[in-house]
Amino acid sequence: MFYRPQVNGLSAELVRDGVIQLIARHLNNKAQISLRYMLSSAFPKNGVIKLTPERLIEDPKLQDLAITQFVIDDGWIGVAAGPSSTPRKHREYRRE
């Protein structure tokens, strides 16, 4: 299962993208079905993982801000906020 980054104003989120994938040599069909069921319950298809705390989103002092950068690279997540009137540039980074 994969998650893709999504920005909504001052909220940085990870949204589930795709189906659950199990890669294992020694799992029989019964074990795979059981694991898929458990993981589907823990990570619902329309599930969203919110990275920005609600208290920051609702803080009146931060209402003029928006997420301007959201990068995931090698297991690290970087999020930056700036004035919401700043033109946003989206870049996709790929490792070769």
Structure overview:
This protein is of the alpha+beta class and 96 residues long. Helix content is 19%, strand content 35%. It has two helices and five strands; from the N terminus they run E-E-H-E-H-E-E. The chain has helices at residues 29-42, 54-57; strands spanning 2-8, 11-17, 48-50, 65-73, 76-83. The chain has a three-stranded antiparallel β-sheet, with no helix packed on it. Strands 4-5 form a two-stranded antiparallel sheet. Strand 1 (2-8) and strand 2 form a beta hairpin. The model has no long low-confidence stretch (mean pLDDT 81).
Keywords:
alpha+beta, elongated, 5 strands, 96 residues, two-stranded antiparallel ribbon
**Order of adjacent strands in the largest pleated sheet:** 1-2-3
What's the order of the H and E elements? EEHEHEE
Structural class: alpha+beta
Strand segment count: 5
Number of helices: 2
Oligomer: single chain
Helical fraction equals 10-25%
Distance between the termini: 22 Å
Mean pLDDT over the residues: 81
Strand content: 35-45%
* Unreliable stretches covering 5 or more consecutive residues: none
Question: What profile does the largest beta sheet have?
Answer: 3 strands, antiparallel
Shape: elongated
Give the topology, please.
Elements: E1 2-8, E2 11-17, H1 29-42, E3 48-50, H2 54-57, E4 65-73, E5 76-83
Antiparallel strand pairs: 1-2, 2-3, 4-5
